[in-house]
Amino acid sequence: MAVTTNPSTNGPGGATNSGGPGGSVTSADITDATPAGRQVLTAPDAAAQRTAMGATALTTAQTTAGATGPVGQTAAGALVSLTGTTIATHNAATSALAIPGDFAAGGTTFSSITAPSGSYAYVRVRAGGQNLVGIGSLNGSVPQVVVQSTGAYGWSTNADAFSSVYDLMLQRGGPGILAQRNGPAAQALRIYNTWTDASNGEWFQIGAQITTDVFTIGPRANGTGTVRPVTAVGAWTFASGTLISSGSVNGGFAIQGGASSTSYVEAVGSTLLCTDGLGIRVSINRSSTNSVGLTSTGLYGFGSTPNNSSPVSFDVALGRSAAGVAELNNGTPGQFRDLRLRNLIASQYVEGAEMAAPAAPASNGFRIYAEDNGSGKTRLMCLFASGAAQQLAIEP
After folding, report:
1. How far apart are CA 72 and CA 70, in angstroms?
2. Domain for residue 144, yes or no?
3. CA-CA distance, 180 to 59, in Å (whole number)?
4. What are the tens digits of pLDDT across the range 52-111?
5. Rounded CA gap, 47 and 96, in Å?
6. Residues 155 and 175 in one domain
7. How far is it, in rounded angstroms, from Cα 170 to Cα 182?
8. Dihedral sign (CA 178, 180, 184, 188)
9. Is 95 exposed, middle or buried (0-12, 13-18, 19+ CB in 10 A)?
């Protein structure tokens, strides 16, 4: 500790030394001394100056009783005031170091605090009878910085750490919960891949947009940076489904219908698969074939209302009737539906079966059908809108 003196006509450091040089120094002498003189009389590292000035060694009681002014250090190592003083080191082997309220305001600085072997050292900030901040090996633990439960680690908006404006704070949200919050201001967390400066970088961001009340997650970039791909690892569980990593179903990346569901939508290479507990139900291939595939009993269905695509509401569907044969039905195999087209061009033949005569068509229309002529012969008929039917051909 740097020590200075301020002698006066009253004796060493301005103190009244009733015993003269080499005489006894009383508590009254210390109390009456000027601040600088009191520092000489009480500071442990000022023994040489006291000897040169004829002051005897102080007892613990004298030091404690006398060091009540704004400058000095008690035998216990308590610093009363250190305005403008630099403390190179403080050895905590035999004493604690207490810093008064005017310590920072006076410009006093530390370079180190040393703890003895087997012990620990820390700095704490107290106010209102509470420990607000602790720095060091607290309670013998690993080195750490700790704040009270309602405290925060904050960053100011400028170079002044004691600025009244803080726009980023990390706080305790509860047991095991780290909260980044600042009133109504939207927050974001960035994990950088590269950073050159504020205008050039690549990062992954989790954040909120206060203007739209939307949470976002994904890669970002600016300047010379590139938006990088994101690889999902492991199972991702959502409120209504689960994302499953590769290899779990058919070797691709799947979306499960629920935690206990056997239904999945899965991407495997260039193919999108819809599967359930019985196997692959739908496949959409983006390769050279650009195809959509169904199981043998699957249907391409059309709902009966504009906003309903549920299979139970199909009133017309295209399905597989047999090998190489397609049928148009109402969602149930064998329950056939009508087909409208402009021209029917057959490269080989058109096949049909006998039926009962249908109702007459609309005006200007006709219907061609086959029926039994009543004698076991099949005949081809054409029915007009008038209700009259004409035979086109008959089985020989």
Report:
1. 7
2. no
3. 54
4. 655 555 555 555 544 443 333 443 333 444 444 444 445 544 555 555 444 444 445 555
5. 21
6. yes
7. 9
8. negative
9. middle
